[in-house]
Design brief:
The protein is α/β, with parallel strands linked by helices. The protein contains 8 helices and 6 strands, in the order βαβααββααβαβαα. Helix 4 packs across helix 5 and helix 4 crosses helix 6.
């Protein structure tokens, strides 16, 4: 969408559990020179950052190129004339999902998402809730019909993650893929043989064994 200059990605961190997804996304996008990030952190997002992570809020805000207050409805990203490649809400609370689904533009997160949808740009919602009741599912259906991608951060295990950070990175990678953005940290499925070898190596590490077979050591 933004052919001249860097790719602009809007990132919103809302009050659902899992602000680490948005933080890790910002860290990885900050390392890509061709991407410019525009960040909104809601009051709920600020609270969960304090509850769930060791990050100080100023350090999180410093990861973005531009930061907006959640009630600044006159911000650049509230207008369709401001070109972006789209928006990622990570994590997305049910309240935010509801606002987007019903076009209730009460804050900048919902307004920016509404703009992304009306301009036919990519909107990805990392909805963080479980289990879902029928009202949640209907809201997700509504935003999908409007053009959004609902991408709950569900863990995958085929690459044998060793840490919580591995699980977070994988979900972030899948969202970045939706924008055609990749980096060297992304774990990808390359077939069953590689998966089996990775699983065996992980089990050996867990058992305290070296991955190198006898006689295979390099001098």
């Amino acid at each position: 969408m933004t052919s001249d200059g860097p790719r602009r990605i809007i990132v919103a961190i809302t009050g659902a559990s899992g602000p680490i997804y948005g933080i890790r996304l910002l860290e990885r996008l900050a390392a890509i020179a061709s991407v410019e990030t525009h960040l909104i952190v809601t009051s709920g997002g600020r609270a969960t950052i304090a509850y769930e992570t060791s990050y100080a809020l100023p350090d999180v805000l410093a990861l973005a190129d531009h930061v907006y207050p959640e009630h600044d409805l006159a911000a650049a990203i509230s207008s369709g004339s401001f070109l972006t490649d789209g928006m990622i809400v990570a994590p997305c609370s049910i309240k935010t999902l509801s606002g987007i689904a019903t076009c209730h533009d009460s804050n900048l997160v919902v307004r920016a998402a509404d703009v992304v949808l009306k301009e036919r740009r990519r909107l990805v919602l990392m909805v963080r809730e479980s289990p879902f009741h029928l009202g949640h599912l209907r809201l997700m259906t509504q935003v999908t019909e409007a053009g959004a991608v609902v991408a709950p951060p569900l863990p995958a295990f085929y690459y044998c993650p060793q840490t919580i950070a591995d699980l977070v990175d994988h979900s972030v990678s899948r969202v970045m893929d939706l924008f055609g953005i990749s980096d060297s940290t992304q774990a990808r499925w390359t077939g069953p043989a590689a998966a089996i070898a990775s699983s065996r190596a992980a089990r050996r590490r867990a058992d305290g064994h070296d991955d190198t077979a006898p006689g295979d050591e390099t001098p």
